[in-house]
Structure formats: structure tokens, C-alpha cells
Specification:
The protein has one domain: Flavodoxin domain (Rossmann fold). 30% of the residues lie in helices and 29% in strands. The chain is built from 5 helices and 9 strands; from the N terminus they run ββαβααβαβαββββ. The longest helix is centred in the N-terminal third of the chain and has 18 residues. It is globular and about 40 Å long.
């Protein structure tokens, strides 16, 4: 969490960046950020920045988007398909990943398409998990949207400092580092 206090409220801030590929994935990311706010407010002031994939990796805006990602306590990458990341988006992520090391942060992948609880994580989640590891971040991956449950989740955190980030997600442990729960 960001140790800096906000200028107006005196509360510590919790910075969230949502990066999305279409309107529905943006809504899904906002829903998760909203649920985090319910859990963390009023103790923390929640600050949310939202970026479209194309804008985040656009040459004229990539530095601003990278600054937001570096300052974020949680980065939510929300996509509607299991398609891989573009090379320009991967390059953008790699441009700031090294600056995340040493801080407490989480990278969350929300992948709308595919099975709810696949036996293996989709390739996109494996790529993002590796990037989270390189940046020293915890990693969470949710795949699919289960019937009647918009956030039936399967998480696999990468633990740092022996502590996972499970504040607002309501997880129930079921084996090893894997977590299932309803948020």
C-alpha cells in the first residue's frame, strides 16, 4: 500500500490501475476495483486510473500509463479473450516492471472467456504470472464468468515476504497456493 498520505484527506491511498481491451472488460475491472474500495474504505482513499490497451502502449501516452502502473498497489489487466498480449503491450509492461521490484503490489488478470476453473491456467495467465514474478508482485488470475456468479474466482498467488494479498477477495484455501472463493 502506498505509504504516502493523500493531500486532502490525510488518509493513506491505495492506487489501482485497470487496463482493459474492450468495454465489458473495463466494466469487469471497475467492478473488482469497486469491491476493493468497499473493503478498504474509509481506512484508505482508493485512486483508480483506467487505461485502454492501445492507449497504454501508444508512443505518446505510454510514459504516463507506465508512471500510473509503477505507482499502483494493484494492476488489473482485464480482457475478454484468451488471446495473447500484443508485442507493443508486452514491451510497455517490460518498460516499467523492474521499477516495481521491492514494493508491495499485485497483478490481477481477469480473463472473461474460457472455462471457469480450467485444469491449467490459460497461456495469457502464465505470461502475466511470469511478468508479475519479474516485477516482484503477487499474481491473481480469474478465468471465465460462471453462470449466475460474476466473480467465482480461482487465484494462484505468488507469495512474497510470506504473506499473500487476500483482503477483499474472500478466498477459501483448498490446496497449496491455490485459492478459490467468492468475492
Amino acid at each position: 500500500m502506498n505509504p504516502n498520505q493523500t493531500e486532502m484527506s490525510g488518509q493513506p491511498s491505495f492506487n489501482v490501475v485497470i487496463i482493459y481491451d474492450d468495454f465489458y472488460s473495463a466494466l469487469r475491472g471497475q467492478e473488482l476495483a469497486g469491491r476493493m474500495a468497499i473493503e478498504l474504505e474509509p481506512a484508505f482513499e482508493i485512486r483508480t486510473r483506467v487505461w485502454d490497451f492501445d492507449l497504454a502502449s501508444h508512443p505518446d501516452l505510454r510514459d504516463r500509463a507506465a508512471k500510473d502502473a509503477i505507482e499502483a498497489d494493484m494492476i488489473i489487466i482485464s480482457v475478454t479473450s484468451e488471446a495473447g498480449l500484443s508485442s507493443s503491450f508486452k514491451a510497455w509492461m517490460e518498460s516499467w516492471l523492474a521499477q516495481k521490484r521491492g514494493g508491495l503490489a499485485a497483478l490481477v488478470a481477469l480473463v472473461s472467456e474460457g472455462e471457469c476453473f480450467p485444469a491449467e491456467p490459460p497461456p495469457l495467465c502464465r505470461v502475466l504470472k511470469q511478468m508479475a514474478r519479474e516485477g516482484g508482485m503477487d499474481f491473481f488470475c480469474q478465468t471465465g464468468i460462471c453462470r449466475n456468479e460474476s466473480f467465482e474466482c480461482a487465484f494462484e498467488p505468488v507469495h512474497r515476504h510470506g504473506v499473500g494479498s487476500h483482503v477483499a477477495l474472500g478466498e477459501i484455501p483448498y490446496s497449496g497456493l491455490a485459492w478459490r472463493g467468492r468475492g
